[in-house]
Each structure stands twice: as structure tokens, then as C-alpha cells.
Amino acid sequence: MAVTDIEVFAHLTDADIENLAVELDAIRQDIEDSRGERDARYIRRTIAAQRALEVAGRLLLAASSRRTAWWAGAVTLGVAKIVENMEIGHNVMHGQWDWMNDPEIHSTTWEWDNLGASKHWRYNHNFVHHKYANILGMDDDVGYGLLRVTRDQRWKRHNLFNLVFNTMLAVAFEWGVGLQHVELGKIFKGRAAPEETRARIHEFGRKAGRQLVKDYVAFPALTSLSPEATYMSTLKANLAANVIRNLWSNAVIFCGHFPDGAEKFTKTDMAGESKGQWYLRQMLGSANFNAGPVMRFMSGNLCHQIEHHLYPDLPSNRLAEISVRVREVCDKYDLPYTTGPFLLQYAKTWRTIAKLSLPNKYLRDTADNAPETRSERMFAELEGFGGTDPATGRRRGLKTAIATVRGWRRSKRAKALAAQLGDDLAA
Fold it and tell me: Which GO terms describe its biological process (predicted)?
């Protein structure tokens, strides 16, 4: 099932993990020491560009209700919302720019263009998700309480609708993020404290109400003052922009957490967790996707999800350079660096969600050695594996161990297929 002993799974010694922490700490220190005007200029320009995009989208919607202008306005507004949520809101609220001491660009003051309250998001995401990343029963982002994304989650009948639920979550992703802190599951099960529940619902309702009025009442009414536009055309455009933002945000975030190679962990694995073990869990539990400058920007630099989980409070514009050094560390310790083309990574998340809509008895791979669910037990036959390869002199760690087990599995399947063909020919 999920990883229960990260050292055994990673094929690293205690000394290795301590050295790993030292090297990753050194990367952090280098970036902190070099932060300065270049980084401050980047975030200020990004905020200015995002606001210009939003104004342009609003003006396009007011200038004409013709289909071409409507689509241009809706898409421009959708892009503005993506930039605000991904590259600005997400990263500012992580404290990536707190070192500037700018009261406008600070994690404690930024309120993003989203249904969920920033206060709630900072707790659920910064504290719960990043501290307990991919630990079953502690990280609510593992399936968002709705989807089955690992075999460690017991199959229930509603999981048959995994694909339907994921489609709904993608379209209305801001609602999923906003309602996460309300903890509807605990409310339905009667496990939520009444006073805390009322406070959370009130805070969510107040923020969501403001957002709904802004998008579907205030701006449509303002635009309708133009003789070239109507209230309904702007309302529909705002709805389209929100859906565009939701679909993109969902895709980027899922690519960072649910493709093949993003490991899951048990509660026991964090008992007495050292800094090196925490680093290791972040590296193994996250996944990247390949991206150029435009894709990096539009994803909030979360194409570097591994680096973001290692250093969630370092400026997002520095993650690309950090990734080069993190990859070198992975190569040194023979650890997998999970990445791939965006569409392929996203397709893998949908494949996992589709596959796990079925009970385990209908799945081919074992619960300890499946693309989406692995544990140290998959290496039971690799006794004495580790150290250095006597033939090449290279370290043999997790990356080589996974490749070895996969090779065995392919070989067994090939032999079984050959035997089956031989029997068929003989018959």
C-alpha cells in the first residue's frame, strides 16, 4: 500500500538523508541570500500586467456584444484570473514576497479573486497540505474527500462515479477549494464543533457572497450601461472566465500531485520525521511537467511542483533555476525526478481516477506496485540491493530499484505471453 518506511523505500541510509538535507538547505540559503530588486520588480510587474489584462477584458465586453468581442473579452478575463490565482495569489499567500515588507504584497493581507477566503486557504494549503503532503488521513488534498486516487483509500460505491466527480470538480474548482475548510464531511457525520463550524460557514459565505456579487451582479450591471453590451452577455462572459480559470487551475494542480510516481505515505511514516525525511517526502510525493517560459508563468511556476514543495516560501520566479540543482541532487542519490509533457502527465491523472473507480479485485497491478500506489514492499525480492553497482560504480538507489523491478515484471509478462502462445499453437 502506501509508503510506511521512507528510508527503506528510497534506499538511503540515515547519513544519506542527513547529507541530502544539508545540500537542499544550501540551495535555500543561496536563493535567500540573492533575493533582491530583480525579484521585487518581477512581482510588481506581474501584478501590473494582470490588472491591465483584467481591464482589457472588461473593456472588450463593454465595447461590443458581438460574438468575436465576447470571446475575446471572456478569454482575456479568464487569463487575467489565471494569472491572479496561480502566479500572484497562490504565491503571495505562501509568503514568497513577505521579505519585501510591502503591505500590499504580503501573505497576511492579500485577498485573491476566488470564492474561498484567503485566511482559510492559508491554513488548509500552507499548513495542512504542505506539512502533511500526501500523508493519508492528514492531507485533505489526497482526493479532496471526493475522489479515490490511491488503493489505500477503501473503495466505496460512489467511487464508480470518479470520472463524473472529477469533471464536476474541474469545472467548479474554486467551489471545491473554497468549501474545503468548511469540512462538509465532518458536518454530515456530526463530528464538527458547532461554534467552529458556524464561524467557518459565516466566513466562507461572506467571501463567496462578495465574489458572486462582483462577478454576476456588479460588473454585468456596470457593463450594461454601455449601449454596445448587455447585462446577460457580461454575466455569461464572467461565468466562462471563471470556468476557464477553474479548468486550468485544476489541471495544473492535479499534474503536480496525482500522475504516476507521486507517492503516498502513511501516518506512521512521519513519526519523528527529520528535516531530511521531510525533504525526501516532498520530493517523492510531487511531480513536475515540462514547460517553457509562457507555460511556467501561466502555471504559477507550479510546473516545478517538486521545487515548490521543497521551498514553498521562495519566490516562484526562481524555481526554474532551483530545479537544475534539485535535479542534480536527485541524480546524485539515484532518486526519481518525476516529470513529463503536460498533456501526458494530465492524462495519467485521469487514467488513475478512471482505474480507481473500480474495486481492487478488478485491477491488474498489486497494491504495493502500481503506477499510482507503491510501497517499500515492492522491493521484497531485492535483498542486498543498494550501495554501488559493481559494473558501473554508480550508486544504486530508488530510481534503479524501480527500473529493476519493472524489468522483472516485463520479463515475467513476456514469458507468460510466450508460454500462452506456445500452448495455443500446440492446441
Answer: lipid biosynthetic process
